Each structure stands twice: as C-alpha cells, then as structure tokens.
Amino acid sequence: MQNKDIRPPFAGLSGLDVTQLFADLPTPCYVLDEAQLLQNGKILRGVQQRTGCRILLAQKAFSNFPLYPVLAPYLCGTEASGLYEARLGKEEMPQGEVHVFCGAYREREFPELLQYADHIVFNSPRQLKKFGARAKDAGKSIGLRINPECSTQDGHEIYDPCAPGSRLGTTRAQWDAAITPELFGLLDGLHFHTLCEQNADALETTLDAVEQKFGDILSHMSWINFGGGHHITRRDYDIRRLERLIVRTRDRYGVTVYLEPGEACALNAGYLVTEVLDVLQNGTTYPAILDMSAACHTPDVIEMPYRPPLYGAGDAGVHAHTYRLGGPTCLAGDIIGDYSFPAPLREGDRLVFGDMAIYTTCKNNTFNGMPLPDIWLLRADRTLKQLVSFGYDDFKRRLG
Ligand SMILES: *Cc1c(COP(=O)(O)O)cnc(C)c1O
C-alpha cells in the first residue's frame, strides 16, 4: 500500500509504504508522529513570535510526556486540569510555566499544587475566597474563569461551557453578586474557555462578548487566557484573524494573552493501528470486528461523537465494499463507523486510523478487560521505537 493520500490526517505518512511500516507492530497500538508534532509546534511558535502571546499545551488532550521535549522549544509551558497533570507538566516540561484550572480544588491537595503551579485559575468567587490568599502568598499568579455566556457551538452541548445553567466559569451576574474589593485585589488575570475545534471567527464572537461583559475589568488585569478549542494547526484555520484578535486585546487592555490549546498541539500527530479479527454478514450489513475498541481506545468517537479518518478507506458506498467497523467488546454501540474499501476486508488485515494522538491515550480504559494498546513513536527520521507496553497487571492493579 503506497501512500499517495496526503490529506492532513495522513500527511505524516506521505511517501511511506504504510503496510510495510506498521507490519511488525503488535496491535492494537498507537503510533505518535514526531514530525507532525514538530510541524504543529512551528505553527504555534509563529503565532507567539508575531503577537507576543504565550501558548501552553493543554495536557488533558495530549499527555504523552516522552514527547514533551519535542514540543517544549515551541511552547511556553503546560496547562493542567488538576494536581496530577500539574505535577506532570512541572516534571516533564520543567522549563515552562505551569498553569492549572480545576472546577474545584480540594483542601488536601492544595498545598502540593502550590509546589507545581505558576498560575492558578479558580472557577468561582467562593473558591477564590477559600484559596486565593494562600496562593497569592505563595507567589502565584491568580485568575478567575469567566463565563461570557456566548455559545458558538451548535449540537455539542456536552462541550459547551456557555450552555444555560453551566457550572463552568463565573457569569457577570455571579461576579457582581460576589466579587468584593478584597477578592478583586487578589486577581491578576481572567480566563475563559468556551470553544471546541473552532476557527478564529468563533473566537472573535466570544471576545466581543467577553469585552462587552468584562471589558471594564480587563484593563485592571495583567493577563487574559483565551483557553483552548482553537484549531490553529488545521489547514483552513484563519491564523491572521487569530493574530489580529490577540494584538487587539493586548493593545486595548495592556494584557499578556495566553492560549492553551490541546488538540492544536498534537493534531494529526498519531495513528492507531488495528487488525481485523472477523468479518460478518447480517442482512445487508457487513460488520467487521477489530482488535481495538471505540469505547476503550477512542472514547470520543462515541462521546463527541465523531468519525475518525481511516487510511485508504472512504465513506460508506464510495468504494465497492462497505463494512461497519466495531470493537470486540459486549457494548452494542462499540462502533467506529461505516467505511468502504476497494477490496474485501479479510481477517488479519491491518487498518490505520488517523488523528489518534489527541484525547486517546489519556482517556483509555480497560472495560471488558480490553488490553491497553502499546504506544510507539514514529521518529522524525521515520524509524519506529516503542515507548511503553501494557499487560494484564495494568488491568488488574486498578481493581483491588
Ligand atoms: C479542554 C480545555 C483546553 C484544551 O482544549 P482543546 O479543545 O483540546 O484545545 C484548554 N483549557 C481548558 C480549561 C480546557 O478545559
């Protein structure tokens, strides 16, 4: 199978014989692509150089720390969702800043968190009141997450922190009811995170809402964090518009602008190699069972939901042979999707899913006793190296 398919998800495999490249890997396994990470890093560094903004890796999307040294030269640090990610960022990208946002911090974790984090962002005035002075005394930069109440995503309520009744971020009404001069005095910055896989037009709409609701506060702050969800490294992303918005905000309010994308850092920088275990026919449907599971290894396929790109395959009906690809688990809905192939699928065939570096390895589970896929690295020189392998003990140790 010679790769002529240079659409972005497989750009990293361009010119390689994919069948041969992955022939000896144990399946299922992830393969992280160093060259694609570098390419993403260069794009993100360009934005920072042209605007003076600071970009962080949101580790919840990609926390394969052996690759942090690859991204580190292009980024200003890491963003964490809590104690463990903050520690990971501090340990594995020690030259960078560590920022943390959590919906609510725990008393027993807070002293340790102070050892790792440089910026601590609180979700509510009450959390700011409970922990803010302690964090300030420890020399931290303090932020509050705001909710500009501006939804720019349709159909993805689970990814919309601006949905009515949201628990994420402080609305202007909540701010007015609770932010005393004393609490205000603790704050160094504001943080918002409202986007998901979006372009700069959605950011512009959101920024307008942020300015309308919180503009009077911004000039008292030293930074603003635009959160994640900026699909900056996608081919059609409007980088010039992003840069205009960063510069506009910087100049209007005299603030440092932070961005903390997860997806954009590792977009299209990984593959999931899997093998066909069985091919069935049920009426007019041809289910094929793979040795990977959507529920365990690509949970966003079910949760988001989305359809991952599959190397050499088309949408249902495009090629002569269409199959419904699913996992070996008991879950009826453990289905990746319907894909078509030029030739019939057979037991033992290998399939390669694209864009598998984000929200995958860090979200894996062992439901049904499914093994955790090994993780390999495709180095920039196109040689392969195993990063980690898993076995029965990894399954059992979590259970008792
Ligand atoms: C999820 C999240 C991010 C990263 O989002 P991406 O969609 O992966 O870019 C950044 N910051 C916060 C607070 C988040 O919750």
TrEMBL record:
Q: Where is the Orn/DAP/Arg decarboxylase 2 C-terminal domain?
A: 30-356
Q: Which InterPro entries does the protein's record reference?
A: Ala_racemase/Decarboxylase_C, De-COase2_C, Nsp_de-COase, PLP-binding_barrel
UniProt entry keywords in alphabetical sequence: Decarboxylase, Lyase, Pyridoxal phosphate, Spermidine biosynthesis
SUPFAM superfamilies registered for this protein in UniProt: Alanine racemase C-terminal domain-like (SSF50621), PLP-binding barrel (SSF51419)
Q: Which positions in this protein are listed as binding substrate?
A: 263, 300
Q: Which Pfam families match?
A: Orn_DAP_Arg_deC
> Which cofactors, if any, are listed as required?
pyridoxal 5'-phosphate
Top-rank taxon of the source lineage equals: Bacteria
Q: Per its record, how is this protein called by name? A: Carboxynorspermidine decarboxylase
Please report the organism this UniProt entry assigns to the protein.
Butyricicoccus porcorum
